[in-house]
């Protein structure tokens, strides 16, 4: 009797564990950020959606000194950067600042009213 209770508990435990483990055959590998980098180049700019963050100042109110570069997605055909929680590409504007280039070394060049400005990502390793 005690042996059948243990067997029943063991079978129940194995069943519960099998429910919590996803099947390996159907899983897809994803980046830590959740971005699908494989299809990034093929998407048009309008397909990449970004929601407004109520805790971030609108870009038109931001001075050059308040800009923060937090990420870069770089490819030879298309690159993007995350500046003040906004995804921007070459030619886009953050307020009155135009994105001129996005470099794989962790830098973005912006054109301001007073000239060119190089925005660097904190902790970026440059070759």
Give a structural overview.
By secondary structure, the protein is α+β, with helices and mostly antiparallel strands. It has a single domain (29-120), classed as Roll (SH3 type barrels), CATH 2.30.30. The protein has one helix spanning 2-20, and strands spanning 69-73, 80-83, 86-88, 93-94, 97-103, 107-112, 115-120. Strands 4-5-6-7 form a 4-stranded antiparallel β-sheet, with no helix packed on it. A hairpin with a 6-residue loop joins β1 (69-73) and β2 (80-83). The longest helix has 19 residues, at 2-20. The model has no long low-confidence stretch (mean pLDDT 74).
Category from helices, strands and their pairing? alpha+beta
Number of strands: 7
User: If you compute it from the alpha carbons, what radius of gyration comes out, rounded to the nearest whole angstrom?
Assistant: 23 Å
Summarize the helix and strand pattern as letters: HEEEEEEE
- Total domain modules: 1
Q: Give the overall form.
A: elongated
**Cα-to-Cα separation, first versus last residue:** 70 Å
Q: What is the percentage of strand-forming residues?
A: 25-35%
Overall pLDDT level:
74
User: Which fold name corresponds to the CATH topology?
Assistant: SH3 type barrels
CATH class reads Mainly Beta
The neighbouring-strand order within the major sheet is 4-5-6-7
């Amino acid at each position: 009797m005690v042996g059948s209770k243990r067997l029943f508990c063991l079978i129940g435990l194995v069943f519960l564990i099998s429910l919590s483990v996803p099947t390996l055959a159907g899983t897809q590998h994803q980046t830590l950020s959740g971005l699908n980098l494989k299809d990034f180049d093929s998407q048009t700019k309008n397909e990449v959606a970004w929601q407004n963050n109520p805790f971030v100042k609108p870009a038109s109110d931001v001075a050059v000194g308040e800009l923060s570069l937090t990420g870069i997605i770089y490819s030879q055909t298309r690159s993007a950067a995350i500046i003040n929680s906004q995804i921007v590409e070459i030619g886009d504007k953050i307020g009155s600042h135009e994105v001129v280039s996005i470099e794989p070394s962790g830098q973005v060049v912006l054109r301001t009213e007073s000239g060119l400005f190089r925005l660097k990502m904190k902790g970026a390793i440059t070759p």
